[in-house]
Design a protein that fits this description.
- This protein is α/β, with parallel strands linked by helices.
- The chain has two domains: about 100 residues, Roll (Ubiquitin-like (UB roll)); about 130 residues, Cytidine Deaminase, domain 2, CATH 3.40.140.10.
- About 20% of the residues lie in helices and about 30% in strands.
- The chain contains six helices and 14 strands.
- It has a six-stranded mixed sheet, sandwiched between helices. The protein has a four-stranded mixed sheet with strand order 4-3-6-5, with helices on one face. Strands 1-2 form a two-stranded antiparallel ribbon.
- It is flat.
């Protein structure tokens, strides 16, 4: 049985009809404990798969690492259930000797949930982690037509969502080439973003200049912060942003797009990066 999308028995009901016993595919959700040097750092609920990317992206998001050579090794630890099968739910990470440990003042509480990546943060100021990368001077530009194509391209790559209807997704799209670099899915929107950022770290692509981050849900403050920590200059979401997400994007020089659906979108920050297309339409002026 797949841990990413397990099958579960259900009873299908329709008004006025007879109950029918059946099976349905649901999104997998299991805890992952991330350790650094043998010491527990965090437990997060995630969809199994791309765990190394998730752990690496988490360290980038928290400002612990920003280069591939700062994360020396990752390995699964023993994490066996009663049957003796290793569930691969514990990861131990080794950092380079010159990497400072995570600042306790911005550390997450030991347990987080898939729906709340910031549970346990001490204060709103604590999450305004200073990124090593500047996005304000990223020369990235794109057309409104390019942005309008992103949700469908993201949706087409969501293989597990197609089975379950229950996962968030994130993608990195290269602006100059229009290439989708990577797509990751997870039951938690913040985990999906960490997974694509972790992929970028492991591929030695940070900072992600000239790249657009696309997310399937809303644009929260935390997702904007994660994008900034990876050097992403543009974040596009199919749903709404929060007020703090907009403020952080404005302060940082990031382009933030919300309600990206079909041919319409709202540009909340960084409208200067959107240029005319070949037809002469799509130019955005800053209010």
């Amino acid at each position: 049985m797949s841990r990413v999308a397990p099958r579960r028995p259900v009873v299908r009901l329709t008004v006025g009809g007879e109950p029918v016993a059946d099976h349905d595919t649901v999104a997998g959700e299991e805890p992952l404990e991330i350790r650094v040097g043998g010491s527990s750092l965090v437990v997060t609920m995630r969809t199994p798969g791309s765990d190394f990317d998730l752990a690496a992206g988490f360290l980038v998001s928290e400002g612990v690492v920003a280069r591939r050579d700062e994360l020396v090794a990752m390995r699964y630890c023993a994490g066996r259930e009663q049957s003796g099968v290793n569930l691969f739910n514990v990861l131990d990470l080794t950092l380079a000797n010159d990497v400072a440990p995570l600042d306790p003042s911005v550390a997450r509480s030991f347990y987080t949930t898939s729906s709340c990546g910031l549970c346990g943060k001490a204060s709103i100021d604590a999450v305004r982690t200073r990124s090593r990368f500047e996005v304000r001077d990223d020369p990235l530009t794109f057309t409104a037509a390019f942005l309008a194509s992103l949700p469908e391209r993201l949706r087409a790559a969501q293989r597990v969502f197609e089975l379950t209807g229950g996962l968030h997704a994130a993608a990195l799209v290269d602006g100059p080439s229009n290439e989708v670099l990577v797509v990751r899915e997870d039951v938690g929107r913040h985990n999906a973003v960490d997974k694509v950022i972790g992929w970028a770290l492991r591929e030695d692509r940070l900072p992600l200049r000239g790249v657009v981050l696309v997310v399937s849900g809303r644009a929260s403050f935390e997702l904007v912060q994660k994008a900034l920590m990876a050097g992403v200059a543009a974040l596009c979401a199919v749903s709404a942003p929060s007020s703090l997400a907009v403020e952080l994007a404005e302060e940082s020089g990031m382009t933030l797009v919300g309600f990206l659906r079909a041919s319409s979108m709202n540009v909340y920050a960084g409208a200067q990066r959107i240029v005319r297309d070949d037809t002469g339409s799509g130019e955005v002026e800053t209010p």
